[in-house]
């Protein structure tokens, strides 16, 4: 009886070890990045935001503990940010400022994965973004309601000193993988960190849709 228990225990341990698997891979894709600005404004002001359409690229490592659970870490680069359209007017005086913010960001996403099937999984995690560079391109249009009298400007400035370095963004995602190592994934990252060092909270959220390839495996 003891021998049977010993054999059964060894068999279970062997099955558990064989179910574990570590794979490395590469991925790239499309990002739709938006900024949200929270600050006080009066009735004469209007502030709108639009997304920036950009990309991401990098590598990953995935470890499966068994057929259903695993973890994944990644190292990605993406120029995130967004666009802002600010308008103010009173009587015949108006002012419009259109800005594009670009945050050159090194992303370190870490996630827990649940494999619903061999090919399909869902993930929950967080992206830790390190902002390496920050630039703002601004177009200004101002006037006093007199035809032909307008002031316009178009400039790009470095605002790294005005931006906090860390951008934490929890995310939900899903992945569909083929047996040959090719996979497709999508996730939404919800920015919770205040990126502005001045008054008014600025957050950065982004959607990622892409394709990749994992090496090794069965």
UniProtKB/TrEMBL annotation:
Outer membrane protein beta-barrel domain ranges (all copies): 19-195
Signal peptide boundaries: 1-19
Protein origin, superkingdom: Bacteria
Keyword annotations from UniProtKB, A to Z: Signal
Gene3D superfamilies with a match to the protein in the record: 2.40.160.20
Listed InterPro entries: Beta-barrel_OMP_2, OMP/PagP_B-barrel
Coiled coil (residue ranges): none
Protein name: PorT family protein
Taxonomic lineage of the native organism: Bacteria, Pseudomonadati, Bacteroidota, Flavobacteriia, Flavobacteriales
